[in-house]
Amino acid sequence: MPAIPSLRTQFVHLYMRDQSGDTPQTAYTDCGLYTQVELPNNRYLRNHALSMDGSLYKANMCEMFRYPEALKLSTDPTYDQTAFEEVLESKTGDDHTKLLQMLDAVNDYSIPTEELLDTYFDVDNLTSYLAFNLLMGNQDSNAQNYLLYSPLDSSRWYYICWDGDDCLNETEGTLRDTNWQIGEWTRGISNYWGVVLFNRALRLPAFREALHQKIELLRQTITPDRVAALIADYRAVVDPFTQALPDSVYLRSNQAIRDQVLSGMPQELESSYRHYLDSLEKPMPFFQGDAEIEDGSLVLTWGESYDLDGEFLRYDVQLCQDWQFEDVLWEQKGLLDTSVSLPLPEAGEYYWRVTVANESGHTQSSFDSVITDTGAHNGMRRFTITQDGTVVNPE
User: Fold this and answer.
1) Looking at the domain assignment, is residue 122 inside a domain?
2) Mean pLDDT over residues 96-124, rounded?
3) CA pair distance 321, 352, nearest whole angstrom
4) Measured between alpha carbons, how far is 246 from 29 in angstroms, rounded to an integer?
């Protein structure tokens, strides 16, 4: 695909013989089929005709904030490599000067976004990265699973895809009944709204138009027929392994389930495309704040949503003692403000959620989620009122 750099891979039938310990193995053990993945490092840059002395980072959890407590120059006396690598893992050295300059600019709103993109990024690369992952339904590509690369003697940075195991995963999620754990906002461009760089870029009509053109271009290559043909080619290699030991023991599904997953994957391209189009019409997600007590009342606050078409937004708020919201204790609808005050409830555990709607009737939930024994429940937060009348907000 044009403008989509990645990592080279190959299948490996792996055998291992343990020579450690007092009783080394004399025979090899069949470990089944593996994928060998090219390491992203200086050699990777050389092999792909990129600047071998450039900067390369792997994102472990980076939404392009500045992260001043973690991301520091290696010469800083308070530099902590472990803390640094929890955000970005350097693959080519420890001079982070250029990286920090770029992140400073991304988080400097006095710099016009058009100037930011022109100075530090390549719009064709950014739209290619987004378009590919949007079409493939790869939701796990916003804060992680990407590489950042900058050539030597250049201020520009480029996104490189890393790890696509969440691509074309909707059919499998339906069969495993795990799609309900996915927040509404993860489908379409709202999946990238929490990333500072993309949040700024997607507010620009020209950038959204460039993204749409790139999606339409890639749709000429990423077609259901092409995906089906690639699956058939891979199955010729993979099926003999998945149907035999040892791989058949470790797979979480039988052959009938796998056939359903593989036959459904090509059709997911159209589903992902619809999610993208729908996301253009919806308000953007936001975060709910901590519940607080002020002057004897409970105060709930949340961040502002954003509508790409500039439509007025109204918020509905609900409070319950169950995450299903079957018995609503209190609610208020059609709010223009992003906070509300209500009488302090009695001691207990509470759930609250905010839904935003634009003038066209399209709705969106918050980024937040609550984890209970029954799983992840999206678009809500939880708090507890103690017996002494204080509020506790779990992380």
Assistant:
1) yes
2) 98
3) 8
4) 10
pLDDT at 181 over 80: no
Q: Among the three residues 166, 187, 218, which one is the final residue of a domain in this structure?
A: 218
Domain end residue (candidates: 154, 184, 218): 218
Q: Please, is 185 exposed, middle or buried when counting C-beta atoms within 10 Å of its C-beta (0-12, 13-18, 19+)?
A: buried
* 213 & 303 share domain: no
The overall pTM is greater than 0.90: yes
Whether 296 and 209 map to the same domain: the answer is: no
Q: pLDDT category, 180, cuts 50, 70, 90?
A: low
Residue 106 lies inside a defined structural domain of this protein:
yes
Give me the numbers of helices (H) and strands (E) for the chain, helices first please.
12, 17
- Tell whether omega for the bond before 266 is within 30 degrees of 0, i.e. cis: no
Look up residue 283 and give its two tokens: 């308000």
> What burial class does residue 219 get, using C-beta atoms within 10 Å of its C-beta: 0-12 exposed, 13-18 middle, 19+ buried?
middle
Same domain, 54 and 174: yes
Asked if 204 and 343 sit in the same domain, the reply is no
- Under 8 Å between Cβ of 301 and 289: yes
Backbone φ and ψ for 110, nearest 5 degrees, come out as -75, -15
Q: Which domain holds residue 181?
A: 9-218
Residue 52 has which token pair?
């071998």
Residue 376 parent element (H or E): strand 375-378
- What is the distance between the alpha carbons of residues 356 and 193, in angstroms, rounded to a whole number? 15
For residues 197 and 296, membership in a common domain is answered with no
Cα–Cα distance for residue pair 156/160, rounded to 1 Å: 13
For residues 343 and 199, state if they share a domain. no
Confidence bin at 373 (pLDDT 50/70/90): confident
**Mean pLDDT value across residues 354-380:** 94
State what percent of residues in the chain have pLDDT above 70.
99
Q: Are strands 328-335 and 146-150 parallel, antiparallel or unpaired?
A: unpaired
What is the spatial distance between Cα 29 and Cα 31, in angstroms, rounded to a whole number?
A: 6
Q: What is the pLDDT of residue 252?
A: 80
For 72, other C-beta atoms within 10 Å of its C-beta total 18
Is residue 212 within a helix (H) or strand (E), and if so which, with residue range?
A: helix 205-218
Domain count, the chain: 2
